[in-house]
Specification:
Elements: H1 14-33, E1 37-38, E2 44-46, H2 48-51, H3 56-59, E3 64-66, E4 72-75, H4 80-89, E5 98-102, E6 105-107, E7 119-128, H5 133-149, E8 157-163, H6 164-173, H7 181-189, H8 196-205, H9 210-220, H10 224-233, H11 238-241, H12 243-254, E9 261-263, E10 277-283, E11 292-296, H13 300-305, E12 311-317, H14 318-328, E13 340-344, H15 350-362, E14 367-369, H16 376-385, E15 390-394, H17 396-400, E16 403-408, E17 414-418, H18 422-427
Helix pairs in contact: 1-5, 5-12, 7-8, 7-9, 8-9
Bound molecules: histidyl-adenosine monophosphate.
């Protein structure tokens, strides 16, 4: 068929748009409850905004081209560099900590697969200007609260959390030089996707010995507080480097969210700029891709805007979240049903239907009526097909009495209602 959407791009038919709006509604609700203000930036940015700091993986997925003015540009694959630039440009005037959220559409030329498309919408919540672990916990809690608001508990969604400072400390102790940390992070990031032999070969090809490569993978396999404590006991100042991570996990427990949390050192995040606590949300059954990812990135504002401000935030896409929602309740999101379908008994009643429909819409009611002359039976069928809860029937006899008939389309019950009381009658569900 001609004229299909590009691979990885979506047409949003009304049911899809309703699901998207449900997700956007929850995102805005949680952002508001946490006191975050909305911002946005341009969908097209200078290419070097991403080539500088985002890391090879995302740079390899850029939609990039030269514009008609000869500039190298890219569709935004993520929001964080734009945010860092915007904040850095006005840093002195902005009250800290800055709590901003955005819901951009992002573009990545990824291999299309379940949960990963070439465009997606992403809630970004970022807290800038506060270096402490309570800020990390605040951001992780907001991500968890999105899934809680959608009705998912810890048996459905897990928060997997780690800290790059802890991983770096353990890797350093394992013999990884500083210059090879990003090589080691790259292998750990893929620990659940690629076989251990492949990862070890990659580490050795990058310059590590086979023994150190094994130790890198052992760090990435550490799970839970006890295993972490035991590993850190071997490292000088081990407890100190885990202080912020422990404080963050403790704060989440104080908030009553401890049941969601898994300490998991395989979480290092694919993007290059993270410097501290890092986390991802996953479905507990692990059949879906990551629902959300984020962490602390204290060096990015300096690198992109010359301003030294610590920052922590997350991005949560609409694609996997949508799969989670439709998986739990397949008939899930629907556009709000009509409050009433107005029915004209005869052609003389049509102008009264138009006037009444307009009055009801002005009063905030959702109403429709037939757009061409039709018999009563056909109009009632149409009303049912449109999912209306009630039909409001306007006929000559009722009009003469200043009334309409309100028919409940679920049980067929009818009531005569004075026209001036119709708004109230439709407000009662
Ligand atoms: P990210 O891990 O690249 O992080 O993306 C965050 C989330 O966006 C993922 O967990 C997933 O839900 C969604 N996502 C990413 N790529 C795709 C895709 N191709 N199709 C569907 N969904 C996708 C970032 O983008 C960071 N900038 C997040 C951040 C904000 N860190 C600090 N502040």
């Amino acid at each position: 068929m001609q004229g299909q959407a590009l691979p990885g791009f979506r047409d949003f038919y009304p049911g899809d748009a309703a699901l998207r709006n449900q997700i956007f509604g929850v995102w805005r609700d949680v952002a508001a409850r946490y006191g975050f203000e909305e911002y946005d930036g341009p969908p097209l940015e200078p290419l070097e905004l991403y080539t500088e700091k985002s890391g090879d993986e995302i740079v390899g997925q850029l939609y990039e081209f030269e514009d008609k003015g000869g500039r190298r540009v890219a569709l935004r694959p993520e929001m964080t560099p734009t945010l860092a630039r915007m904040v850095a440009a006005r840093a002195p005037a902005l009250k800290k900590p800055i709590r901003w959220f955005s819901m951009p559409q992002l573009f990545r030329y990824e291999r299309q697969q379940r949960g990963r498309l070439r465009e997606h919408f992403q809630l970004n919540m970022d807290l800038i200007g506060e270096p402490g672990p309570l800020a990390d916990a605040e951001i992780a809690a907001a991500a968890v609260d999105v899934v809680r608001t959608l009705g998912f508990g810890p048996e459905v969604v897990r928060l997997r959390i780690s800290d790059r400072r802890v991983v770096a400390g353990l890797l350093g102790h394992a013999g990884v030089p500083d210059g090879m940390l990003s090589l080691a992070y790259g292998a750990i990031d893929k620990i659940e996707r690629d076989p251990p032999g492949v990862l070890a070969d990659r580490l050795v090809a990058g310059g590590l010995s086979a023994a150190i490569a094994d130790r890198v993978l052992a760090v990435g396999r550490l799970r839970g507080q006890d295993a972490l404590d035991a590993a850190l006991a071997e490292v000088p100042d081990g407890a100190d480097i885990a202080e912020d991570l422990s404080a963050c996990v403790g704060a989440l427990a104080d908030m009553g969210l401890g049941g969601f949390v898994d300490l998991d050192l395989s979480i290092v995040r694919g993007l290059a700029y993270y410097t501290g606590v890092v986390f991802e949300l996953f479905d507990a059954g692990r059949s879906l891709r990551a629902i959300c990812g984020g962490g602390r990135y204290d060096g990015l504002l300096r690198a992109l805007g010359g301003v030294d401000l610590p920052a922590v935030g997350f991005g949560m896409g609409d694609v996997v979240l949508g799969e989670l929602i439709t998986g739990a309740a397949p008939a899930g999101a629907r556009a709000a049903p009509l409050d009433a379908f107005l029915v004209a008994v005869g052609s003389d009643d049509v102008s009264h239907v138009l006037a009444l429909a307009h009055r009801l819409r002005d009063a905030g009611r959702r109403v429709e009526y037939a757009l061409k002359a039709q018999g009563l039976g056909k109009q009632l069928k149409l009303a049912a097909a449109r999912g209306a809860r009630r039909a409001v029937i306007v006929g000559p006899d009722e009009r003469a009495r200043g009334e309409v008939v309100v028919r409940d389309l679920t049980d067929g019950g009818e009531q005569q209602i004075a026209v001036e009381r119709i708004e109230d009658a439709l407000a009662n569900v």
